[in-house]
User: What shape does this take?
Amino acid sequence: MIIFRLIGESFRFAFDALRQNKLRTMLSLLAITIGIFTIIAVFSAVDTFRNKLQASVDKLGSNTIYVQKWPWSFSDNYPWWKYMNRPQPSQRDFVALRERMENAQGITFEISTSDRTIKYRSSSVEGISIWAASQDFNKTWNFELQDGRYFTENESNNGSPVCILGADIADGLFNGEAPVGKQVQILGRRLTVVGIFKKEGEDMLGTSLDKNVNIPINFAKGVLDVQSDRYGPQITVRGTDKVSLEEVESELRGLMRSIHRLKPGEEDDFALNKTTIISNQLDSMFKMVNIAGWIIGGFSILVGGFSIANIMFVSVKERTNIIGIQKSLGAKNYFILLQFIFESITLCLMGGALGLILVYLGTVILDQVADVQVVLGLANINLGVWISVIIGTISGFWPAYSASRLDPVEAIRS
Assistant: This one.
């Protein structure tokens, strides 16, 4: 009960100081407010940006491996010409993997080409991407259809002239008409629309299917050189849910080395790319951004700490006679010490609360004006509170200690 009374009195003293010296206190709290605002704003922006990037990465599949010519992350001492001399993943590799891979729930051979035009009667949409893939594309990629269906196995095997359109392409071409069953013109050929991808919206990595057209790889063979470097051929392997990514990667590496007839000790002539590579790079990048946020906000908090310490020294000076009376009535040193430390913490919490309110208002304004949803997470709110408590404790300790050591007779006389 004594502790609660002590905390209550500390709050009362803090609010009395604020009421009696509003301008002085607010100016002193300004640095704490700016510091908390800077740090929490930076961390909230980083968390929002990171979550969006991670959502884009997760769409690639956490248990998916991409067999490609080029790695997503380059080692420092690997000569570039070795990458140049690597072969592109081929359909022969794909067929061999499909026959021999045991821990895969889906394997596809894919190519892509961008900046193409699709037409329907007098309407056209430019700047689209065309993906040609084998039958298991619906097993290796996360997507939903809002209309129609996916390719049948016969359509994929026979290379039928069918396609699935992204939501933005369907809106641009058909203007409200039902797209399924209509014929569109792509790559100089006429294809029948059998399905429409569900609208996904823009993401940070450009993995949205909204402006994509998917066609069977066997149909693409008749109009494109599917082994050409410019179409980026790749093999996508999604492991089974019961098997770890490391096991899938180990099996896949062994099979690819066997298919390419690489001797023991020879370097791989292919890259096995996975989303953990991107996630690790994101961790490194955002770690540096967080450090920068701490440095920028740290200076403001440091200045704020000195300001709070200055207020507390002034407060001790103004209440010296009161401290003497308290000690003469039996107040212990620790009681005086805690009283001023709690007062310092209270002042810092007020400054931190103002900083958090400013961050929240900033998120609301960005959401309304720029349609950017910045998330002020509970972890960042807790961080702001704890920073305020720590700075308040450090800033208030020496003034509180000096107050607790005052001689009661000298204090009353002053």
Remarks:
- Residues 43 and 247 are 36 Å apart (CA to CA).
- The beta strands are 64-68, 104-120, 123-133, 145-148, 162-165, 183-186, 189-197, 212-216, 234-239, 271-274.
- Residues 2-56+280-413 form one domain.
